[in-house]
Amino acid sequence: MGLYEQVQETVGAIRARAGGLSPKVGIILGSGLGGFADGLEDKVVLPYVDLPHFPHSSVPGHAGRLVLGRVRGEPIVAMQGRVHAYEGYTPAQVAFPARVLCALGIHTLVVTNAAGGVNLDFRPGDLMVITDHLNLSGYNPLTGPNDDRLGPRFPDMTTAYPVVLQSQLRESGRRMGVELKQGVYAILAGPAYETPAEIRMLRHLGADAVGMSTVPEVIAANHMGVRVAGVSCITNLAAGIGGKPLTHEEVAETAHRVKDLFTRLLEDFLPTVARAGASNT
User: Fold this and answer.
1) For the stretch 157-193, what's the b/e string if a residue is b when 16 or more beta carbons lie within 10 angstroms of its beta carbon?
2) Angle at Cα 156 formed by Cα 154 and Cα 158, nearest 5°?
């Protein structure tokens, strides 16, 4: 069975249990940020293990559940956690859940993550609108045969993060009285955290935040013609900046501390995007 057929089989399994919900916006919730989906109205919860071909999360802070529901009346689909290449998955498997969300009929995918702050002006707890990315992972989910039913062989990445969505995110922040940061997200393969020398390199390359996820999902969504908005929660200062060892516990603690702000941002932004529709590019 090819990739296209696998995606369609998974979509069919979701629709059979979705209770008639037809989301137009999808969101992938990163490390420690999955609690947002618990507050959805009329929610239907589908564990990843119950979905055919769907990869299973193994990292703490990633619940491994697909949640369909509503935010202020607007239907959305949320992933509580993602998988990563460092868990042993192929790039295509890492991007598979994003493809499923796109095939469900969403016009906008929102990607979120916990990231290390490379920009010296950032502090733990800041929320950063992703304006662009650097793929330094060494892999790409489009490697291998291309199925034209999913997208073109050579997709353009110039507007992978449309400016209008960045503006809408910042406007949602302003309505809450919060100035969101903005910047470039860089992905490295992980799972080891970066060295101080690597962080200096990233800063020279123009990165503002660094993590081990998100970019494969963005590439896959762009390949399938779906718009992407991205938010990084700066959970720690990157190596060589904060002066203390990096731990996943610190990431989880900071994500927990900002969860209320993060939730309010999404509660404002997601319905706005859902109502605006795909034509607002």
Assistant:
1) eeebbeeebbebbbebbeeeeeebbbbbbbbbebeeb
2) 160
φ/ψ region of 161 (left if φ > 0, alpha if ψ in -120 to 50, else beta) reads beta
Residues in the chain: 281
Q: Which residues contact 279 (CB under 8 A, 6 or more apart)?
A: none
Domains of the chain, with CATH numbers? Answer: 23-140+159-276 (3.40.50.1580)
pLDDT at 162 over 80: yes
Q: Which amino acid is at 38?
A: D
Rounded to the nearest integer, the mean pLDDT of the chain is: 92
In 3-state terms, what secondary structure has residue 48?
helix
H-helix segments, the chain: 3-16, 91-103, 163-175, 196-205, 215-223, 248-257, 259-276
Question: pTM for this one?
Answer: 0.94
What is the per-residue pLDDT for 205?
98
What one-character DSSP code corresponds to residue 191?
S
The phi and psi torsions of 94 (rounded to 5 degrees) equal: -60, -40
Q: Which residues contact 12 (CB under 8 A, 6 or more apart)?
A: none
d(CA 79, CA 128): 20
